[in-house]
């Protein structure tokens, strides 16, 4: 017998403690891309999992930042894999209203209290709320209703370079699991819920155009701009190489075969799309993205289709030459750009990197060099899976009919679970709300309103989801 | 009677003092673009001019950094205008072997002693050497052989925004002058001398492509890269806007009418070119530019023609989005680029900026905004001018037959003197050598060799040039 009410009451009675635990975790910076606070944060999370009562709990060292493996043995019939990550995106050059690692509780209309901080929502604060829920279950019930394998990445925000080998290491254990389940705050600012049954694959890479590799233009340093009359420019070369990759509006990729392996949406996909169209409102998206007009002024079904099935090539950043405040006339010797591609079924990560390389080679840009290549594959779970139905059940009991999306516009390396060889169904969900991931003033709602669950209700929903799946 | 030998001897006897004065001046940073040390440097130079015996010497305040006006009244028949500037380019992000403001004397093969520092050659060290020469003349002779109007810019390296109004202020005085003469070390590393009778005009501007101005894409901050599937990208927009401006090799400007006012070289120009071709060797240029191959593998006459008469559009720098060491997947809300155009007769600075603007407008890039627009016009002096002949005369007496170039690939606002309304002939020249302007380890030769004049011989040549012009 799962004592839901008693557990809910325990959450209410220990809410301040729960908030303090989130603050402690968010205040420990863990910027993987800058190697800032990573080991400290891993140790902190490990100690949380040990205190939870995991029979196994260990840092798993990698060539960079550690992953974490932990196993809670409930002696239960069902076993879930819980997928998390403890790293966050950098904050440099961002204009935060509140310090990004202070985890301050502030009013942010329409919410009376949110916790502001890098990782408050994506994903440290959300994840610690999940651990709070587990602690309350154990405090009341003495045990969990399912066994849990915790698989925690330390470099999700930089493309998870070592997570695949970590997962391979525990492959035999993970084969025995039934599903991947990651309870997390999933309400929009207006209280609606979107469930995402898939993720896009991604390919990250830097390209560098340098006089050195080209054999033309300035070789080792930037030279005076007056020489442009007789010296080639790696900067113009980079501009034209990049321009060759897309249509003039930047929205259609012109690389040979880029889209050729994208498969049309399935019947289930299109059924879900038709349902989505009925109640779709893009206003909250506009608010959250800080965008006034969508690409091609798309709306309704068209916007949904792009969101779900659009494969992209994006410039994350570009820099070279004189980028300081002063004016300095130079022919730059090097220009670099960071790009990422987002991939839908069945586009492959390595395939796409190779196609970009082939495109550059075909146009004679053989000297343009790739660096920092990383990425992963897309993943997809059917709406009919019991773990998905269990989460839907909890929403519906709360009077929420979620919008079920067959894919997500963002990327997570879920293919490691959903793809070969494990083929586990993967589901995320829960009440609660946070916003501005990867942006200034990222937040997690602490005190909710009549539409959005506050932290306590969010944690309770995590409890209910676990119960729903265990008893299904 | 001009006592040349005695003055030369005075230079030899006071060389260490002269070096110390150069060091004092170079060690005072004066980075106009970063507002670093500007007023201190202006005061320092002013004090030098006062000590020289200028009857008038004053800082002339501008909305940014002061210019300097000084007048040395020798009671002579002829009056020259001396044009200088006391600011230098930034050093940030440059890899210097010696600290850029230490003015260290070091060995730099093939030279036993050079003074290394930002501005050592361009132009503070060189300019202080000229003042050293004047001090020695006055020390020996009690007076100078010509009257000198010193017109000194504080923002040459950022496009001289306030120099034109400074010159206008002294227009009536400058009308009474006979020529502009700026003695400066002009030997190459192999001892050869190049005289440049013109300068190109220049247009500097920044362009900014932002979601805000566009009304599309991210408005106020960078947003997650996954949104590229349905959000427009100001970064791709900037790439395509820039790509539209040149041919694929970056070397032909495709902006309507960009070249239309460029006039063909004159007869005198082509006579000078034919002479240049005879002895032209590009090896020292390659060494100085750190370039292996010229544009289109040009050589000889073709290379000279591009150098002299090539009008260009150059990307000085470009930056936007994630340019940090970490990987951050974002759709950038803003990308900026700094560009400069170099202009030959009769291309106008304002004309070219307007044409770039019209080009962007024609293609629909009306939202791309211009900032930091500044620049100036080309200038040209005939080889037949007495001031040019006076300088040539000194070279020839030293056994040097200079290569006379009807134009220069670089820019200086000499049009203020050579153009309307003053129409003064303008000439620069002298022995001595320095290198790497705008680049790390910029240097001025202190101890010469059998081909290149050291500091003492350079200062002596400045003395001789003044004498040659005074007595012509």
List keywords for this structure.
homodimer; 472 residues; alpha+beta; six-stranded mixed beta sheet; four-stranded antiparallel beta sheet; 15 helices; globular
Describe the model.
Two copies of one chain form a homodimer. With 472 residues, the first copy, chain A, is α+β, with helices and mostly antiparallel strands. The first copy, chain A, has helices at residues 4-13, 15-27, 38-52, 124-141, 163-169, 171-174, 211-214, 234-243, 267-279, 283-289, 300-309, 349-362, 386-397, 415-418, 455-470; strands spanning 56-60, 67-72, 79-85, 104-108, 111-116, 147-153, 179-183, 194-196, 198-199, 201-210, 223-224, 312-321, 330-331, 334-343, 369-376, 379-380, 403-405, 426-429, 434-435, 443-447. Chain A has a six-stranded mixed β-sheet with strand order 1-2-6-3-7-18, sandwiched between helices. Chain A has a four-stranded antiparallel β-sheet with strand order 4-5-20-19, with no helix packed on it. The mean pLDDT of chain A is 96. At the A-B interface, β11, α8, α11, β12 and β13 of A face β11, α8, α11, β12 and β13 of B. β12 of chain A pairs antiparallel with β12 (312-321) of chain B.
């Amino acid at each position: 017998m799962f004592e839901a009410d008693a557990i809910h009451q325990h959450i209410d009675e220990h809410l301040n403690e729960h908030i303090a635990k989130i603050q402690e975790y968010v205040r420990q910076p863990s910027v993987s891309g800058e190697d800032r606070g990573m080991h400290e944060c891993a140790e902190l999370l490990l100690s949380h999992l040990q205190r939870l009562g995991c029979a196994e709990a260990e840092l798993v060292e990698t060539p960079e930042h550690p992953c974490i493996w932990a196993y809670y043995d409930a002696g239960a019939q069902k076993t879930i894999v819980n997928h998390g990550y403890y790293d966050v995106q950098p904050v440099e050059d961002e204009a935060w209203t509140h310090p990004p690692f202070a985890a301050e509780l502030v009013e942010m209309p329409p919410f009376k209290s949110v916790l502001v901080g890098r990782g408050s929502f994506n994903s440290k604060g959300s994840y610690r709320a999940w651990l709070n829920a587990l602690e309350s279950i154990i405090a009341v019930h003495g045990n969990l209703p399912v066994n849990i394998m915790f698989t925690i990445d330390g470099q999700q925000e930089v493309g998870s370079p070592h997570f695949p080998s970590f997962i391979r290491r525990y492959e035999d254990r993970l084969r025995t699991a039934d599903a991947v389940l990651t309870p997390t705050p999933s309400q929009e600012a207006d209280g609606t819920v979107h469930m995402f049954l898939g993720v896009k694959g991604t390919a990250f890479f830097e390209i560098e155009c340098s006089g050195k590799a080209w054999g033309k233009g300035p070789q080792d340093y930037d030279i005076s701009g007056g020489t442009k009359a007789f010296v080639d420019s790696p900067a113009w070369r980079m501009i034209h190489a990049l321009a060759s990759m897309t249509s003039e509006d930047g929205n259609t990729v012109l690389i040979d075969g880029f889209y050729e392996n994208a498969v049309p949406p399935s019947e289930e996909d299109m059924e879900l799309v038709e349902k989505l169209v009925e109640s779709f409102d893009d206003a909250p998206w506009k608010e959250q993205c800080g965008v006034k007009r969508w690409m091609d002024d798309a709306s309704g079904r068209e916007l949904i289709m792009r969101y779900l099935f659009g494969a992209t090539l994006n410039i994350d950043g570009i820099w070279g030459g004189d980028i300081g405040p002063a004016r300095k006339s130079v022919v730059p010797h090097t220009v670099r750009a960071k790009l990422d591609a987002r991939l839908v079924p069945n586009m492959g990560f390595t395939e796409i990197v190779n196609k970009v390389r082939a495109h550059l080679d075909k146009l004679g840009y053989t000297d343009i060099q790739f660096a920092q290549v990383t990425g992963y594959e897309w993943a997809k779970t059917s709406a009919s899976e019991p773990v998905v139905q269990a989460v839907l059940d909890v929403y519906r009991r709360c009077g929420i009919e979620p919008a079920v999306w067959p894919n997500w516009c963002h990327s997570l390396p879920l293919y490691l679970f959903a793809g070969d060889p494990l083929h586990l169904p993967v589901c995320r969900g829960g009440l609660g709300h946070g916003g501005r991931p990867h942006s200034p003033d990222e937040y997690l709602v602490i005190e909710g309103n009549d539409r959005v669950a506050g932290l306590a209700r969010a944690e309770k929903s995590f409890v209910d989801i676990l119960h729903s799946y265990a008893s299904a």
